[in-house]
């Protein structure tokens, strides 16, 4: 049995969590970028609160030692916490919410959580998606890619929604259908957060940016329809979006890759992204 420190898990409202957990989250601005943007987007109103979110801060003697955000239907997302704090969070979620179907977070914290949660909740922990977190400080654009990048506009909204759904269906065929309209609508008014690569006036690839938090911008939503793959369009789009983020004030960019996709891992490294840490999803099944 793992010894646990005298930690306490506090469920807080968004404003309190944002104020109290912010300094701890910003100690690792790249590893915690998703958590930081989940909070920032809801504080700003870009993404409205659904009412089902759970903001959990872990304290030890009054000091923040961990954090997690739960935005159903997705499972909780953990910060880069110690094994003992991961166990404390698992105990909290086993007591406090209906049975989880998954959890996400950095390795090894997420595996520690999954082990303890499965034990306490009477579930079986099953490894899910394995990811790698990359960081970039200076971009190396590809050469010889035909076409150009442009920022997406409201006229591209339906295309972006359709491409997001196609990406989800391809990468998570057993998962629920995805409606990315909310995320797209949150980005469009800001300009420069949604990018398209065009060839002869036809959109052939896309990449999304998050708003900067703690000096870090995250690349996501990278998708090229099958008919246009293998021509470097995604590389061109990601490089341009990355350069735009750095030129407009970001100190670093980050992105997540699927470890089972060696092509994307190789491409991003050729642009200047370097491995920082691993992350994973664990699923919980009924025995």
TrEMBL record:
The keyword Glycosyltransferase does not apply. Residues 147-287 form the N-acetyltransferase domain. Keywords: Acyltransferase, Transferase. The keyword Transferase applies. Gene3D superfamilies: 3.40.630.30. GO terms for molecular function: acyltransferase activity, transferring groups other than amino-acyl groups. This is Acetyltransferase (GNAT) domain-containing protein.
